[in-house]
Amino acid sequence: MKKGLLFIFCFLFIFALPPMCRGEEFSLEELYSLALKNSETIKISEEDLYISEQEKDRAMAVLLPKLSAFGKHTQYSDEKRSATSILQPEYTTSWGLRLDQSLSLSGRELTALKMAKETIVKSGFDLDNVKEGYLLNVASAYYNLLKSKKAAEIARANVDRLTKHRDAAQTRLKVGEVTKTVLLRAEAELLGAQSAMIKAENNLKFTKTVLARTVGISGDYDVKEEQQPSVLNILTPDCRLDCFKGIALSERAELKAVELQKKIAENEVTYTKGLYWPTLSVEGVYSKQESYPSSPLALKESIYGGLKLDFPFFEGGLRRAEVREARAKQRQAEYRLSDLKHSINVEVEDAYLNLITQSGILDKLQSEKEYAVDNYNAVSKQFEYGLANSVDVMDANTLLVTAERELANAKYDYQLSILKLKRATGTLLKTVVSQQSSVSSQ
């Protein structure tokens, strides 16, 4: 009676635990959201965007005049007088306001502000590029975990099959239908399968750790397996390889960032050429001075303004070197843009062909697995009735395990290849954001 009550209590305790205590289950979209929220890599890129915004404020500050206040108090050791005037007072106090502004006649400060604004946009594209790359890393870790789970399931099923075969070999050995070598072979195969199962389970733990680190999950968890859109939804008749390349050249965030970097480099040349122009400085000052004892001839208050034109004629070739350096950076930006376009075309073609390949072999592997299952079941029955030997069973089992593993890997590689094509065309982040928006609006 006590044991029954204890069993009921333990049963209720386990199933009454809140979901978080039993380990939360995440979908791929939920993993995306957690990664965008928790990733240190993305946060670093967000700080780069924030720094760019502050650089724009700095560039704007240069265009505004600087207002400053000043003050000075001087205490002398003693007072000195002449017959008609005070030579040295006991102390003097002065204070006032100063308004300063210095601008180049070339307008290079406006060019710097334009460059700062373009840098903000470029940092936004860099952030999108980092997010897209990180989302693909999350998807890769997610599918690696699913592969590991499937591999562990296949390994456990293999151990179960080989255990049944070993038991059948023991039974047939007792009745003298087989020799002892058949049992020894079955035992060896079973031990090998158990070793493979241990490796698969440990690899499953490791892939869970990798995904948790990538996304920022703590504690026990599990993932939901979700189907990606069919390849027919991706490879529409009017959008083939050239179409995907065109999409990539218009959508890839890093390409947009490099194009902006090229514009910034062009403006950098203009900004550097502004060093050849003179600088105009304007100042306005209000000052007041008091002294004790005061002199009737002393100037107590003054207001004045001034203009200054500064034009350095010779700086040892510094300005010419800086202009040449800016032009070299402009050429680098042009080369980098051209190289990136070629690399993106190759990346899109690789992702496209990989998707076609995975789609083509998936059906073949599905049929192979079905044939392997039927073959194993038939050979196992034949072994039970003495119509097949142990080697036939082992071969059929090896074929089945191989077919199951290849099918599982191909299935998840196919789904990941869809995301890789979206990443190559620069549409992965938009797809994830639109899916999250639609889910939140429902």
Write the layout of secondary structure elements.
Blueprint: H1 2-15, H2 19-22, E1 24-26, H3 28-38, H4 40-63, E2 66-75, E3 80-81, E4 86-88, E5 91-104, H5 108-174, H6 180-215, E6 221-223, H7 231-234, H8 241-251, H9 253-273, E7 279-292, E8 301-310, H10 318-384, H11 390-425, H12 428-441
Parallel strand pairs: 1-6
Antiparallel strand pairs: 2-5, 3-4, 5-7, 7-8
- Fraction of residues in β-strands: 5-15%
- The percent of residues in helical segments reads 55-70%
* CATH topology (level 3) name: Outer membrane efflux proteins (OEP)
Give the oligomeric state: single chain
**Count of individual beta strands:** 8
Order of adjacent strands in the largest pleated sheet: 2-5-7-8
Shape: elongated
Mean pLDDT, as a whole number?
Answer: 86
Q: Indicate how many domains the architecture comprises.
A: 1
CATH architecture: Up-down Bundle
> CATH top level?
Mainly Alpha
State Rg. 38 Å
Largest sheet: 4 strands, antiparallel
Distance between the termini: 51 Å
Helix and strand element order: HHEHHEEEEHHEHHHEEHHH
Runs in which pLDDT lies below 50 for 5 or more consecutive residues are 1-22
Strand-pairing-aware structural class:
alpha+beta
> Count of helical segments?
12
CATH superfamily: Outer membrane efflux proteins (OEP)
